[in-house]
Amino acid sequence: GEVVKAIDRNWQSLGKNRDKFYSLVIAPEEKEVLHLGGDKQKLRDYAIQVMDIYAQNFNSLSGKNKGLKESDLTWFAKLEDYRYYKGWDKEVKQGLVKNNEKKQGVRHVHIHIIVARKDRQNLYTLSPQVANKKVFHIVGFKLKAGYAFDRMYNYRGSVRHLEAHIEKRMGHRQVIQVIEKYAEYKKYRGYDRAADFGLGLSL
């Protein structure tokens, strides 16, 4: 379809075995969806903001920003209202529902995003999985995306798992350094902890 063709056109100069695109998932908590009144357009608007942050997060090897924005990317998003029960879910084990049956309810609302590795002009090869944090800082991206949600919709995240996850992987000293690095994003409403990030986003 259209998505496949667009991604295919974006493969120029990439090797046969190199990644051609990346997949992201924006998964708001139930209370965040309820805060938006279930307004799906607000979630779509937020997805655009996330991709703008994604584009702006790419730098050269020297650390100089590439100056990209969302419109420079080839990306597609699909909002889904549900997830599917799997064999390991207790409801399936108890015989209450069948495997692959849809899970309903706002807590299952999420957005799938596919973004091509090359920019629209085929000038840059963009990888969020690059090891060099000067080129793309994945933790910084997640933090900025979370703070953006709160700024856009006058919300303050309350989930503490992200900070704990980051600290477990990076150590207390490093996580503080990351938070300080993105201090400009947390000034809204007095942020002082990575835990103020409430919206789950995976890459």
Could you describe the 3D structure shown?
The protein is of the alpha+beta class. It is 36% helix and 13% strand. It has eight helices and six strands; from the N terminus they run H-E-H-H-E-E-H-E-E-H-H-H-H-E. The chain has helices spanning 2-8, 30-35, 40-56, 90-93, 138-153, 161-170, 172-181, 183-186, and strands at 21-27, 75-80, 83-84, 102-103, 110-116, 200-202. The strands form two sheets. A four-stranded antiparallel sheet has the order 2-5-1-6, covered by helices on one side. Strands 3-4 form a two-stranded antiparallel ribbon. The longest helix is centred in the first third of the chain and has 17 residues, at 40-56. The chain is globular and about 55 Å long.
DSSP strand tally: 6
Judging from the principal axes of the Cα atoms, what is the shape?
A: globular
Order of helices and strands: HEHHEEHEEHHHHE
Taking the sheet with the most strands, its summary is: 4 strands, antiparallel
Radius of gyration: 18 Å
Based on secondary structure, the structural category is alpha+beta
Poorly predicted residue ranges: 188-199
**Strand residues, percent:** 5-15%
- In order across it, which strands form the biggest sheet? 2-5-1-6
DSSP helical segment count: 8
Distance between the termini: 24 Å
